[in-house]
Amino acid sequence: MTAVLDALADPRRREIIDVMARSGQATATTLAAEVDVSRQAIAKHLGVLADAGLVASARQGREVLYVLRPAPLEATARWMKDAAAVWDRRLDALKRAAEES
């Protein structure tokens, strides 16, 4: 999960994830056109995303096709939801204690 959060800390990588979520798959060339950065920069970002398990790649002719892997995102979202629920309970208890005193 740490690798996923580290990968998502960069706004360009979040933008890449957003583009891929809409299309399901893309090449570095098509991503570079949509995200408006160089193909080399996209390739580096895709490497980080791949290391975090967020994208998988497969060669398709001369290009490499990248596919979004949502499972790590879903696991991270579940953890964040659970952590938020714990804090909501703690804050509710604190609020009740403050109101009672």
From TrEMBL:
Top-level taxon of origin: Bacteria
Residue stretches spanning the membrane: none
The organism of origin for this protein: Luteipulveratus halotolerans
Domain HTH arsR-type: 1-88
Gene3D superfamilies xrefs: Winged helix-like DNA-binding domain superfamily/Winged helix DNA-binding domain
GO molecular function: DNA-binding transcription factor activity
Protein's name in the database: ArsR family transcriptional regulator
CDD domains: HTH_ARSR (cd00090)
NCBIfam families (alphabetical): HTH_metalloreg (NF033788)
Pfam families: HTH_20
